[in-house]
Description:
CATH topology: Growth Hormone, Chain: A
Order of helices and strands: HHHHHHHHHHHHHHHH
Amino acid sequence: MDQTAQRPATESAARGTPWGLLALLMAMTAIGPTSLNILVPALPSLRAVFAVEADTVQLSVSLFLTGLAVAQLVMGPLSDRFGRRPVALCGLVVTAAASLAAMFTTDVTSFILTRVFQAVGAATGLVIGRAIIRDLFDRDRSAAMLGLVTTAMVVAPMVSPLVGGLLEMAFGWKAIFLFVAALAAAVLGWAFKVLPETRSRNPARAGDGFLADLGRLARSLAFNGYVASAAFGSATFFAFLGGGPHVVVTMMGRTSAEYGIWFAISSLGYMNGNFVASRLSMRLGVDRMMLAGLLVEAVGVAISMAASAAHDYGPAVLFVPQLIISFGNGIMLPNAIAGAVSVRPQAAGTASGVLGCVQMAIGAAFVQIGGLVLIGARTALPLSAAMAAAVAAYALAFFLMVRRR
């Protein structure tokens, strides 16, 4: 990276908040959750289109998450080695191309394969956005900035299921992938024009190579604690993603568009949690904010379990507790990410990739769990129990590793 490319971004961060860059990072980050969530309302229709069972169609979500996980493990070190900008641009190209290819698939195997390639491209926005922020800011301010950028991770899930449901009802499922391809192409053009290179070439701040950096991170109790907290704290969302449509559409007999509306309402909790993180993280610090997020999530899952038997009263009994859980998640996640990528700042890309890989791998497992626990169930209680198990694992990781260090 030449120094002229790095200087504008660094100086902008020193003067204040680089709002233009943050807006681009939000858009890049949004590609992944948009690609994931926009398809969810169309899953029942795709089951009929490809003439397969529900668990097979569900693989288009869970394997997307798996691809997102593995790709982040690769893209992070690549961005440490070759720079943030070229890896980000290549990823956006792959996302757009895979989205177009999905429109022409005629069997479920090819369809799922294109979803995996779509995930590989989308992973770059997630991992590189976190690394760029850590390049520019210290730990606590990184948490505040990540609180703003990860707002894209709630706006996208909030809007995309509704958009996906409307597109599927009006034009069919292929319109969903045309929309994602157009979105990725637009962000690609924006990034090509304005995305700076922020990776430092100062030898004193350089990493030791992927394997050495990975070994140092793996031996860090704090890093493992932050990663596990982020993964299990956000697993409540993924479990809900896997089981929520079944509860609303199948058990309650509501439409996919109505599910999208309720999902958007519950996602406001995550947005508000991100806002709280952006305002308080510099004042209270990363660890205190993570504890606050844990307590809020615990209250939310307790209410969810108590209310789950009353599903005859409609989607509100499912989504109101989820609003609380999402609020806690929004407080926790930016701070856990900031803690993880700050353990070894010179390997921020590798740390970001490992965190994203573990988070998405556990998320993929909980998507499947969220659907499997509801097989034969008459209420949403098994789904609430799965989310409670995720919060319990978050608590163990936080108290045994993050606080203990």
